[in-house]
């Protein structure tokens, strides 16, 4: 059985509503609020990788194949996503998400027709709606065999659905995640200076190999972004800047099965992800960050002149970015640092610690570490300052001694 990873990132405040009408009465019988993006990643049989992202803002309702018990959305007839209602009792629904696409048409790969399904949503009363504001992950699986390997992971947030004869949502069944989730994502159009940026995200992200009982990599950090974009200004456009704090309630896709490359992808706003790719050096003596990739959608900015999905990529030119001194060392950088991911995007990090390609046991960040140059400069300030203070104190004591001795001699002469 292959596991697929499809990404839906949804924010309820910007949800797009789709409505299915009953054929005879033409009145509403199914409602869906959804927003975000869908990403499909594939690896063919010669290890070539490709991915494609589509935005739910561009989805259309398949009116022909949607009924009062299934709603189908299409993206330019290349990808189809649906939510199927099934009656499990006289009073309860369960809803099963599904996806289908042709790999040749959508990804320019071999002619696979991929269909996959996620686990059903929790059962809820037929006269209610189902609502989940929190980000929830779903794995899609298929029993079919394909020419390529596909990763499809679903993430839904601010998601609401019902199959009931009403043009507005009925009282909602609240998902378990909403009962414990209290955090939200802040997005403003005010730039944050590099000297005062205070990223809000703090978590550790790791990849566990159950076969060897080993944490292959682990990362702790805080992240924030500053993005320049074109905003609407009447009939014209103007330059604008948005500051985005990566929120605390994120999920991540991790990969640590390959010998020379590991990856971490943090998923947050609709259509947004931040990916770190770790690589070994050619001599296998240590490791470094080879790429930092940000995929983002300007639809998150309410005044954006154009809604589009963009990708920027920082590539380490000399294979030494965030490089640990030895394979057994972890890399540490407490200082607030920044890196340009592209002409319009700056990533800020602080309290960064990571170790990759670990070969045994857990990663505790308790051994030897390679410090970034910014921390070394900060650490050198203290001994220099202490040394200067001590030197100054010695000079003061010496001057005081000389003055005291001179006065003592003068007092002796006067007494004679």
Automatic annotation (TrEMBL):
Residues annotated as domain Lysosome-associated membrane glycoprotein 2-like luminal: 212-358
Gene Ontology BP terms: establishment of protein localization to organelle
TM stretches of this protein: 381-403
Pfam family name, one: Lamp2-like_luminal
Alphabetized UniProt keyword annotations: Cell projection, Cytoplasmic vesicle, Endosome, Glycoprotein, Membrane, Signal, Synapse, Transmembrane, Transmembrane helix
Predominant subcellular localization, coarse grouping: other
Record membrane topology: Single-pass type I membrane protein
CDD domains: TM_EGFR-like (cd12087)
InterPro entries in the cross-refs: Lamp2-like_luminal, Lamp2-like_TM, Lysosome-assoc_membr_glycop
Domain Lysosome-associated membrane glycoprotein 2-like transmembrane stretches: 382-413
Function: Plays a role in short-term synaptic plasticity in a subset of GABAergic neurons in the brain.
Family: Belongs to the LAMP family.
Name this polypeptide is given: Lysosome-associated membrane glycoprotein 5
Organism taxonomic ancestry: Eukaryota, Metazoa, Spiralia, Lophotrochozoa, Mollusca
Gene: LOC106071835
């Amino acid at each position: 059985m292959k596991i697929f990873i499809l990404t839906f990132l949804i924010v309820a405040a910007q949800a797009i509503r789709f409505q299915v009408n009953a054929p005879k009465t033409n009145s509403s019988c199914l409602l869906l609020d959804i927003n975000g993006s869908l990403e499909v990643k594939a690896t063919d049989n010669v290890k070539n990788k490709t991915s494609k992202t589509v935005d739910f803002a561009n989805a259309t309702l398949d009116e022909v194949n949607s009924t009062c018990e299934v709603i189908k959305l299409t993206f330019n007839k290349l990808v189809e996503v649906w939510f199927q209602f099934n009656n499990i009792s006289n009073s309860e629904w369960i809803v099963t998400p599904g996806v289908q696409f042709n790999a040749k048409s959508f990804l320019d790969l071999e002619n696979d027709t991929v269909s996959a399904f996620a686990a059903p949503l929790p059962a809820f009363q037929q006269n209610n709606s189902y609502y989940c504001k929190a980000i929830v992950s779903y794995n899609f699986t298929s029993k079919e065999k394909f020419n390529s390997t596909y990763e499809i992971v679903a993430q839904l947030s601010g998601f609401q659905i019902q199959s009931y004869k009403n043009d507005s949502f009925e009282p909602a069944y609240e998902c378990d995640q909403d009962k414990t989730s209290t955090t939200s994502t802040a997005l403003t159009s005010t730039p944050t200076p590099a000297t005062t940026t205070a990223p809000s995200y703090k978590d550790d992200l790791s990849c566990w190999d159950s076969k060897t009982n080993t944490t292959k990599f682990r990362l702790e950090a805080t992240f924030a972004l500053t993005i320049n974009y074109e905003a609407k200004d009447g009939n014209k456009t103007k330059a604008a800047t948005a500051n985005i704090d990566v929120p605390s309630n994120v999920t991540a896709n991790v990969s640590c099965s390959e010998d020379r490359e590991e990856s971490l992808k943090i998923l947050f706003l609709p259509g947004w992800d931040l990916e770190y790719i770790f690589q070994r050096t050619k001599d296998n003596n240590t490791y470094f960050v080879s790429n930092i990739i940000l995929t983002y959608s300007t639809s998150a900015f309410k005044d954006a002149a154009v809604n589009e999905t963009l990708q920027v990529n920082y590539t380490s030119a000399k294979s030494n970015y965030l490089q640990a001194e030895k394979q057994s060392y972890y890399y540490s950088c407490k200082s607030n640092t920044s890196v340009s991911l592209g002409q319009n995007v700056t990533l800020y990090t602080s309290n960064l610690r990571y170790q990759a390609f670990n070969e045994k046991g857990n990663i505790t960040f308790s051994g030897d570490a390679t410090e970034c140059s910014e921390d070394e400069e900060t650490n050198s300030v203290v001994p220099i300052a202490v040394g200067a203070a001590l030197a100054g104190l010695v000079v003061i004591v010496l001057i005081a001694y000389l003055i005291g001795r001179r006065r003592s001699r003068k007092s002796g002469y006067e007494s004679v």
